[in-house]
TrEMBL record:
It comes from the Bacteria. This is Methyltransferase. One of its GO terms (molecular function) is methyltransferase activity. Residues 27-98 form the O-methyltransferase dimerisation domain. It comes from Streptomyces albiaxialis.
Length: 355
């Protein structure tokens, strides 16, 4: 028996039937908690409460809702850590809940909306089928792939772009100081969306120029991001398809939270195009979670649920170090280093060189 097995057995022995039941019921109720937070967003609960302490009846009136159901919602949000109840029917917003305010610069409202969106969740109803067949449930449910679906729905596409921008904020703040960008002259962000990550890099390294590469839909909000950070003169926007090519002219390619969207064959294609576009001294910097070879429940995070999300909605996967090494090898690249991005877990910096 391994050490992990011994620890697991000891923990199981300490738990009683009630603890096991609470664990399983808590997991099952997780989807209800997500919809509770989604309802709070749609009713603008956090915005209506603001920085003050407000009574449930006041929030209900401003939201155009009935008092008793609103009170029940506010108490449920309190149980989830989004609000705090100071006296009967009197609530304020917690620091975590404040990030549901879409007007805040550190807001996660779009991220929450996107991952409680029916377009994301319907495919999860067919997870067992995807497990049996390996097929992408989203394609079966909607008759098209995820990104083609977004292309037909501009508002949902804009929400997705905003969600990805919010998801990258922490990494955008940490990455510029966690890697030696000073060795390079031009960095290309492959699949860089609205430019939040690349803007963080360019602002921290004034000698660098940038290339932001994505589809036309992916770049839709990029001009506003670059203008806001006064970086338009140092960064060019290039629309294209990384399954066909990537632009030349950069000695560093950054690829964050892109490869996990795709199958191994597709990842090899993307990386092969990067290899062809890079100069001999160039580098590829992949920024993604790196799964351990064995799951440790004590340190496991949401990456394993992300892995299943990739399966049902996109056909991609999260990867181990060995998985990354293999797709890079097939693309004519070699792993140079794998380093945790400690200020933005669970991301790692995977530096890749031409083989």
């Amino acid at each position: 028996m391994t050490t992990t097995d011994t620890v697991a057995a000891a923990e199981a022995a300490c738990r009683g039937p009630q603890e096991d039941e609470r664990l399983l019921v808590g997991l099952v109720f997780g989807s209800m908690a997500a919809q509770t937070v989604r309802a709070a967003l749609r009713l603008r609960v956090v915005e209506l409460i603001g920085d003050a302490e407000r009574r449930a009846a006041e929030v209900a009136a401003d939201a155009g809702a009935a008092v008793q159901p609103m009170t029940r919602l506010l108490r449920a949000l309190t149980s989830l850590g989004v609000l705090r109840e100071h006296a009967p029917d009197s609530f304020s917003v917690t620091p975590a809940g404040a990030r549901l305010d879409p007007t805040r610069p550190d807001s996660l409202a779009s991220l929450v909306r996107m991952f409680t969106e029916p377009a994301i969740l319907r495919a999860w109803e067919h997870l067992d089928t995807s497990i049996r067949t390996g097929d992408i449930a989203f394609d079966t449910v909607y008759g098209t792939d995820f990104f083609s679906h977004l292309k037909e729905l501009p508002e949902l596409s804009a929400e997705f772009n905003a969600a990805m921008s919010q998801a990258v904020q922490e990494a955008a703040a940490a990455l510029p100081y966690a890697y030696d960008f000073g060795r390079f002259t031009t960095v290309a962000d492959i699949g860089g969306g609205d430019g939040t990550l690349l803007s963080g890099i360019l602002r921290a390294h004034p000698a660098l120029n940038g290339i932001l590469y994505d589809t036309e839909e992916g770049l839709a909000q990029a001009p506003a991001t670059l203008e806001r950070h006064e970086l338009a003169h140092r960064c060019s926007l290039v629309a294209g398809d990384f399954f066909r090519s990537v632009p030349g002219g950069a000695d560093l390619h950054v690829i964050k939270s892109v490869l996990h969207d795709w199958s191994d064959e597709q990842v090899v294609t993307i990386l092969t195009h990067c290899r062809r576009a890079l100069p001999p001294e160039g580098r590829v910097l992949i920024i993604e979670p790196v799964l351990p070879e064995v799951v440790d429940p004590a340190t496991a995070d949401l990456t394993y649920l992300s892995d299943l999300n990739m399966l049902v909605n996109l056909g991609g996967r999260e990867r181990t170090r060995a998985d990354f090494a293999e797709v890079c090898r097939r693309a004519g690249l070699a792993l140079a280093s794998v380093t945790p991005l400690e200020q933005a877990p669970p991301y790692h910096l995977i530096e890749v060189t031409p083989a």
